[in-house]
Amino acid sequence: MNKIIVAIDGYSSCGKSTIAKALARYAGYTYVDTGAMYRAIALYTLRHNLTAQADIIAALPDIQVGFIQVALPEGEQAQHVTLNGEDVEAFIRTLEVGNRASEISTIKEVRAFLVAQQQAMGVAKGIVMDGRDIGTVVFPDAELKLFLTASPEVRAQRRFDELVEKGQQPVFEDVLADVNDRDYRDTHRAESPLRQAEDAIVVDNSHLTREQQMQVIYEVFDKITNNQ
User: Fold this and answer.
1) What are the E-state strand segments in 50-165?
2) What's the predicted TM-score (pTM) here?
3) How far is the C-alpha of 45 from the C-alpha of 108, rounded, in Å?
4) Neighbours of 62 (CB within 10 A)
5) Does residue 61 have a pLDDT over 90?
6) How far apart are alpha carbons 105 and 188 in whole angstroms?
7) Which residues pair with 86 in a beta bridge?
8) Is the dihedral of CA 113, 115, 116, 118 positive or negative?
9) How confident is the model at residue 78 (pLDDT cuts 50, 70, 90)?
10) Residue 77 confidence (pLDDT)
11) DSSP type of residue 15
């Protein structure tokens, strides 16, 4: 069975990473969280107080973003992002880092820096990659493209619940405003805006359970790869 590239795009808090991880496990593929890569650079800029575009661009040669596999207590493996060799998974999932990541993702040089790395990861195929421009820019010829969406209110509630689980005390209205702001930035930026590829399969998971949406996606994957 020939391996393929699976490109998953969509709005924030649509469960892209969760779905991509599950599909990668199902297929025996490598999973790449491109959003974590942008968050790692965002964390670097926050730690070094870099706000001007020129300063951020100048710092790119000093930034190394990678992934490591971390053993979980139950015997499974989790993928963590690294920043210059440091495991920063615990630091990149805050609203502050998410907002900065959305901002720096509008910088042409930052996108080119990471897209080149992402394309190199997919040379051998057998990869599931999620982000905002995977099916339109990074892998426009991907054999399977999925575009995930859900209502802003549903996505805000999911994000709110995640933050509460992490011990934070968010205000729902603030989280919803953040979701709407990020949607606007992602879809209106000049460089690689978020948009649905013409040949992408749309999955609206506003009212689907995780099991229901994965069943739909597994069936699509099996049909394309003949993995019956």
Assistant:
1) 65-71, 77-83, 86-87, 127-131, 144-149
2) 0.82
3) 16
4) 9
5) yes
6) 12
7) 83
8) positive
9) confident
10) 76
11) -
State mean pLDDT over 107-131.
Answer: 93
Cα Rg for the chain, rounded, in angstroms? 17
Strands (E), 30-159: 30-33, 65-71, 77-83, 86-87, 127-131, 144-149
Neighbours of 47 (CB within 10 A): 11
C-alpha closest to that of 174 among 166, 188, 163: 163
State the pLDDT at residue 228: 40
Q: How far apart are CA 90 and CA 136, in angstroms?
A: 30
Amino acid residing at 91: F
Neighbours of 146 (CB within 10 A): 29
CA nearest to 88, candidates 62, 59, 117, 67: 67
Task: Report the SS3 class of residue 175.
Answer: helix
The pLDDT of residue 227 is above 60:
no
Closest of 96, 113, 80 to residue 43, by C-alpha: 96
pLDDT for residue 2 is more than 90: no
Residues with Cβ within 8 Å of 11's Cβ and at least 6 positions away in sequence, in order, are 148, 149, 150, 155, 183, 186, 194
Contact 45, 56 (CB under 8 A): yes
The CA angle 74-72-155, to the nearest 5 degrees, is: 100
Q: Give the Å distances, CA to CA, from 1 to 20, 125, 126, 178, 219.
A: 20, 12, 11, 43, 16
Average pLDDT score over residue span 190-213? 92
Integer angstrom CA distances of residue 16 from 23, 130, 162 = 10, 6, 14
